[in-house]
């Protein structure tokens, strides 16, 4: 797995000039920040915040301390994979910006290739005393951790929950304030919804048409609820009992009429599931807080629900049984997000750390929101800005402390695809053992038999 990123980077012949921070002409120091963002284009909010808020304020703060520091922003509007490859090539060539935006799922890959190093290895002991660590839940810190080392600071994040329609629940004789304690209680609620005439009681993303949504909204949270992670201790989880339990849960839903198999096989199935939930045709739907913020948002959502706040409920995803989740948890979730790392080749690593820490301060994090209600990595900011949105406050208070993240390794997308295919097998009628065996064969072909565990 380690040579994969290096091979891609080595395939490029041209390196865009973007050296690390150096001395400035006026005797000061120049630092650089890069992100896949550009004003007026891709991720414009990040670019605008960096150029209009971070840079002038950091420079002013440094000037007040008697330092002449200039900060330059290097924007990008590339495809994510192109951006990733360019950053890899920069780092391989001992060039690149001092502070770099990365997708959290790339951390392990870059670390294994030797392109990034733990923050404390780059900037020293002051990293450990940063005030922000006490505001970022340990589970959220995991977004920037690989092999037990902190490589980056997490940016905004999200969380997976169970959304449900309170009106449909009332008609089915279910509580409007619902928190299942086990997978069986989800099945029981689905059965009650079915008896009351709900067309699709449960929507749990499955199959390859749903893509990564199948893995992140369905398989991985359930696997965590069964007490396992897809990758741990240098091994990938194969056809273990935990994986079979996950597939068994899918089978309960899609062979008993609790879920609509057609949605899982259509190219636009996920979008259709959003529309069906908004119309009151789906009772329970597993999704991230994106669903609340951008799908059923009353005015500008993809499938707006004017009565969202009164009708849409949300609950934590329960473990298979109380206490059976990872870390002995009763409830579980999965999250994603970006991180910022330090370039290990920076000629000014301690000053670069000051810039990185400044970008993740409470003041800077609040400014990046620009008045919007979104979940950040910092609890102090979330406590202050999410009071107007109880659902996002719920994610901050209840989900982030118990969440988990995808393994940040180059081979993960292939493993994810194999998991999606296993759920597709279940939806199409194959048995749990057949689907698990097929996944096991594919996984061994991807990572090698010695890197797979079934325990």
Task: Report what the structure shows.
It is built from 20 helices and 16 strands. Strands 2-1-3-15-6 form a five-stranded mixed β-sheet. The longest helix is centred in the N-terminal third of the chain and has 21 residues, at 44-64. The chain has helices spanning 3-11, 44-64, 80-92, 107-112, 119-123, 138-141, 166-171, 183-195, 212-225, 241-254, 261-265, 269-278, 290-295, 308-311, 349-359, 362-369, 379-385, 390-399, 412-427, 432-447; strands at 29-34, 69-74, 99-103, 145-146, 149-150, 152-157, 160-165, 200-203, 231-232, 235-237, 282-288, 312-315, 317-318, 331-332, 337-342, 452-453.
Describe the protein's topology:
Elements: H1 3-11, E1 29-34, H2 44-64, E2 69-74, H3 80-92, E3 99-103, H4 107-112, H5 119-123, H6 138-141, E4 145-146, E5 149-150, E6 152-157, E7 160-165, H7 166-171, H8 183-195, E8 200-203, H9 212-225, E9 231-232, E10 235-237, H10 241-254, H11 261-265, H12 269-278, E11 282-288, H13 290-295, H14 308-311, E12 312-315, E13 317-318, E14 331-332, E15 337-342, H15 349-359, H16 362-369, H17 379-385, H18 390-399, H19 412-427, H20 432-447, E16 452-453
Parallel strand pairs: 1-2, 1-3, 8-11, 10-16
Antiparallel strand pairs: 3-15, 4-5, 6-15, 7-11, 7-12, 9-10, 13-14
Helix pairs in contact: 1-3, 9-19, 10-19, 10-20, 19-20
Structure keywords:
four-stranded mixed β-sheet, alpha/beta, D-Maltodextrin-Binding Protein, domain 2, single chain, 16 strands
Determine the CATH topology of the largest domain.
D-Maltodextrin-Binding Protein, domain 2
Shape: globular
What is the CATH domain class of the largest domain?
A: Alpha Beta
Whole-angstrom Rg = 23 Å
The overall average pLDDT, rounded, is 94
Q: Number of helical runs?
A: 20
Binned strand content: 5-15%
């Amino acid at each position: 797995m380690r040579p994969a990123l290096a091979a891609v980077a080595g395939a490029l012949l041209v390196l865009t000039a973007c050296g690390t921070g150096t001395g400035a002409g006026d005797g000061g120091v120049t630092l650089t920040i890069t992100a896949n963002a550009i004003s007026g284009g891709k991720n414009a909010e990040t670019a605008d915040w960096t150029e209009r808020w971070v840079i002038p304020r950091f420079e002013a703060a440094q000037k007040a301390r008697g330092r002449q520091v200039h900060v330059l922003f290097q924007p990008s509007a590339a495809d994510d994979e192109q951006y990733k490859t360019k950053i890899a090539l920069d780092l391989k060539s001992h060039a690149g910006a001092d502070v770099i935006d990365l997708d959290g799922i790339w951390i392990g890959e870059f670390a294994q290739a030797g392109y990034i190093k733990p923050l404390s290895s780059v900037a020293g002991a002051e990293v450990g005393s940063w005030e922000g660590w006490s505001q970022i839940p340990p589970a959220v810190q995991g977004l920037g951790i690989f092999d037990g080392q902190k490589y980056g600071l997490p940016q905004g994040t999200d969380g997976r929950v169970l959304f449900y329609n309170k009106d449909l629940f009332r008609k089915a004789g279910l509580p409007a304030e619902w928190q299942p304690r086990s997978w069986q209680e989800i099945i029981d609620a689905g059965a009650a919804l079915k008896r009351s005439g709900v067309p699709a009681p449960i929507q749990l993303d499955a199959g390859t048409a749903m893509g990564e949504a199948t893995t992140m909204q369905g398989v991985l949270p359930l696997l965590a609820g069964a007490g396992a992670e897809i990758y741990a201790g240098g091994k990938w989880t194969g056809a273990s009992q935990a994986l079979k339990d996950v597939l068994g849960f899918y089978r309960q839903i899609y062979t008993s009429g609790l879920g609509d198999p057609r949605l899982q096989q259509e190219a636009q199935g996920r979008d259709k599931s959003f529309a069906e939930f908004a119309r009151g045709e789906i009772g329970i739907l597993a999704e991230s807080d994106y669903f609340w913020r951008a799908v059923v948002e009353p005015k500008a959502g993809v499938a707006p629900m004017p009565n969202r706040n009164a009708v849409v409920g949300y609950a934590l995803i329960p473990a298979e049984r109380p206490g059976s989740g990872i870390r002995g948890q009763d409830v579980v979730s999965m999250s994603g997000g970006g991180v910022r790392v330090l370039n290990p080749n920076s000629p000014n690593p301690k000053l670069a750390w000051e810039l990185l820490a400044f970008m993740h301060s409470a003041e800077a994090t609040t400014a990046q929101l620009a008045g919007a209600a979104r979940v950040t990595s910092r609890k102090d900011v979330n406590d202050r800005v999410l009071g107007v949105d109880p659902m996002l406050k719920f994610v901050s208070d209840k989900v982030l402390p118990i969440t988990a993240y995808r393994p940040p390794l180059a081979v993960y997308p292939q493993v994810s695809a194999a998991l999606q295919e296993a759920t597709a097998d279940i939806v199409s009628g194959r048995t749990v053992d057949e689907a698990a065996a097929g996944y096991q064969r594919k996984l061994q072909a991807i990572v090698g038999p010695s890197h797979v565990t079934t325990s």
